[in-house]
Amino acid sequence: MTSPLELECPACGAPAPVSALPDVAITCSFCGATLVARSKVEHGPPKAPSHAPAATPASLTPAPRTPEPIPARAALIRARRIDAVLLLAAGVLLGRSLVIAREPMLMGTVPHAVMVGVLSIVFGLRNLPLFGAVLTAISGALLTVKPWAWPIRSYDSHIFSPTSETGLFYLVPGALLCLAGVVLVAQRGRPEARRVTLDRFWPLAACAVPVGIVIGLRSVPDRVVRDRVTSAAPAPATPRELVVDWAGTKGEIVGGGRVEVSGYGDGLFITLEGTGEGGTWSLGPKRGRTESTLTLIRQPVLELLGARTWRELEAFVYPHALHLSLRDGRSGATPVPAVNLNYTVGELLRAAENGPVLFGQEPADPHPHDSLYWPGGTKRHIGRAGRLQELDYVLLTHPQPAIMGRRLCPGERTAKGEREPDVTLLLRQTRAVIYDRRTGASVHQQVFDPSNNCPLVRFGGSNREQDSYPPFQAIEAWARTLVRS
Length: 485
What we know:
Blueprint: E1 5-8, E2 15-18, E3 25-27, E4 34-39, E5 57-62, H1 72-102, H2 109-125, H3 129-149, E6 153-154, E7 158-159, H4 165-186, H5 191-218, H6 222-232, E8 240-241, E9 244-247, E10 250-253, E11 258-264, E12 267-273, E13 280-283, E14 286-289, E15 294-300, H7 302-305, E16 322-325, E17 330-334, H8 342-348, E18 371-373, E19 381-383, E20 393-409, E21 423-436, E22 442-448, E23 465-467, H9 472-480
Parallel strand pairs: 8-17, 18-20, 21-23
Antiparallel strand pairs: 1-2, 3-4, 4-5, 6-7, 9-10, 10-11, 11-12, 12-15, 13-14, 13-16, 16-17, 18-19, 20-21, 21-22
Helix pairs in contact: 1-2, 1-3, 1-5, 2-3, 2-4, 3-4
């Protein structure tokens, strides 16, 4: 009866169990090389009697083999190159995990978690679950603790709760990655190849992973890296004046940085970019600190709009200047440029179906029931278009779910002579509701039959069906009968 021995493969160094019988061909379980166990003495004294024990194989030499498409050595080199690329990718993902955890508003957590999970699966398939477990554990831990260690901020220093919908974009992928790390730790690779695998991987990991981490950190936009360098630098002894060169509602800060003003929601929306973290800003009664990437400032202005007319909203100027004091020493105030708030206020008035929409403390209306605003109409102002605090009604339209009929609208020819596809018009009734702006109550409503006019704007893609337009003329005529002239 023979006893198995274990020698090292001369091709890759992996342990190879062999039989005690000499000249028996075996295959290396790691690199696939064909080997033959030879006796220590191949040309010694005459053979021992048949009752003597067989010679013990003491060396392992590659067997003569037929030419192969890829030699074992070449296959091993190729495998190491693949391993180096995988380790480099792991380092890049670790660097990105640090960036995502550190930045207050940098998202993309779900695609990042998917990439980490896929790479960990690849490590597991290559008999390296330990490396996959380390990658998922570190990335998952960073995403999980991010809402507490580095709170998610929005607008002007508003902090999202860790259990809010935004916080779940970090908690759920982070928890899943941590769970995947536990599964990978529980996985076991082939015992006979694990030692050689780790010996082969540690030198590659020591080189490739740090390089990948640096690449992952540098994959942040250059402006972010510049902001971090700026915020880390000490402020100069002599402060500098902050100057903004405005072009419309966009401005370039001399020395680096940008600022943009727009209307959004119930007021102004100011975006600071490239100013670096550690600085301060103030706008009227509001205060805050600048962030490393984007600083978002939201300033409600409804109380300032009540006494203004719709025409004055086309160039609304906020009465307070924007004060900035950056960490690099630049400091100063800049006036906020004029912004068109017509569309912003019009969209805000749609909230009248949910409750009152007021412009601060409104005085009594000297001309009641004489003005109506229709955000989606071809003619938005019906009746007198005076001051915003004198607006009485808001008209909103809602398409009904039932389809009353269909009409085929043939496609027209384009400028290139090509014929557009036909469109099927879904005829739906429209329910028009008039709301009292000051109370949010529904005061009048009526259902109108659909308009069978073919649409002027046609949507592309595979969907060739469109809803019919509201009967604008009929709705406008009905609304005029309810508003005093």
